[in-house]
Structure prediction request, 185 residues.
Amino acid sequence: MSRRRFFKLIADSVAKAAAEFTYEVAKPNKVFLRPPGSGDEDTFLALCTKCGRCVEACQTGVLDRVKEMNPIVLDTPFMNFENNFCERCYACIEACSSGALSEGNLKKFKYVAKLDKSRCVAYQDVFCQTCYWSCPRMDKAITLVDFAYPEFHEENCLGCGRCIHACPTSPKSINLVKVEIDENG
Prediction:
């Protein structure tokens, strides 16, 4: 091995280590709900070109761009349920040319709604059924116990976020969580 090649390998190794360290240090600690068809966060961030075509294609306006001043996530798309909910039309996937959003990921991951009972006003004896009535899978994904207390059933959840959009609490009592789909059923 020539001396030039040796120093080039050393420099490349140092540069790669520095880049990985910088990425880990600058990695955001906030979790963003990515558009349907996104894979795991690291893969999504590596593939997303921040072009905004998915946000423009979104028919309900639920997709927004991250405004956080972190260079890794700045301008990447996320689902903002303050704006609206997801119709699951997948126009965002069709608009994505980078591969950050793909139909194949719809078979690997899905979103499910989770209720934080400590924040939910129904569990504080205030009459509220907004999540229940907003759900397109009423009596399947969300049921009411004693006609008052919502119970969430993730196996029936579409992951559309209508319940989050309708939730009157601040911060919201409902969160969407990305889960891996069990291929065995």
